[in-house]
Amino acid sequence: MPKDTPRGTSLPDSRRTPRFAGVNTFCRFPMLGDGPAAEIDPEQLDWAIYGIPYDGGVTFRPGARFGPRAVREASQYVKPYHLELDVDIAATLHMADAGDAPVRPYSTRETLEAAAAFARELGNPGRTKLLAVGGDHSIAYANIQATWERRGRPEGGLPLLHFDAHLDTVDTVWDEKWTHASPFIRAIENGLINPKRMLSVGIRGPLNTASDLDYGKAHGVRIITARQWETGEGIERMDDFLAELGKDEVYLTFDIDCVDPAFAPGTGTPCPGGFTSNEALELIRRCAGIRLAGADLVEVLPDRDPSGSTALLASHLLAEILALDALASTSA
Fold it and tell me: Using omega within 30 degrees of 0 as the cis cutoff, is the peptide bond preceding 135 cis?
């Protein structure tokens, strides 16, 4: 592909090729590495979307290992033009499905190392951003590590925008330091993210102990509870955080249990009192104007949701995240 090729992603024409036909890829993007992807120049790739089908880091119910496959299937009906943001992600960004990272089913640490090594080599490390689909939230560490390295190893770590019902800053569970309860404490310890530039949105439910809040408080992590969002206080605080980012790139991580189980029952640690599906979409749209370093979407557990509504919502959230970057690209 010539270097001056216009930006954009070639999608199948749904009025000629039915959405229910063909091999499933994320949002029907071309596959990186074979078949139609021969037309893709990895040097020009803006986003590599890939799965990490691993759930060995869960503390309650397993099954998120099937999340990437379910989200791929549900995403066949995702369309590229974003009505509210007035941007076409396929016309603006070069995107591809990069397949699944290798996993080591009996070792979380080895899986994260293997996934980070896989992601490190995707596309053009100086240009291509990474969007990982889990899998449980432990996989975020691997994508954050690869993103931090590929974005120039920023001193002090990347800012982090975190949507979740849980803090995920627990040190150990059952004497294990690498679980879906601990990706951010590990990332902070290793300098990958900056806790003073981290915002967790949607936190709710009872905690095991009040001391679960201590690590975040001590390190400057800002928290917006679901209740604070309802009162309007959280909206103002999130807007302040987004304004503080300025032109700095931020990593976005979205745990589907941020959404109320009435709207997203397919997750392993459901917690009542969360956002509606519409509110979840609006959470991402509220971030319009930010510059993304990378992103992940995790904790989709399809077996708990025979209707498929959780995977469907997750697939649309992927498009919402990509639309943020498309919007930033058009306004740069």
Answer: yes
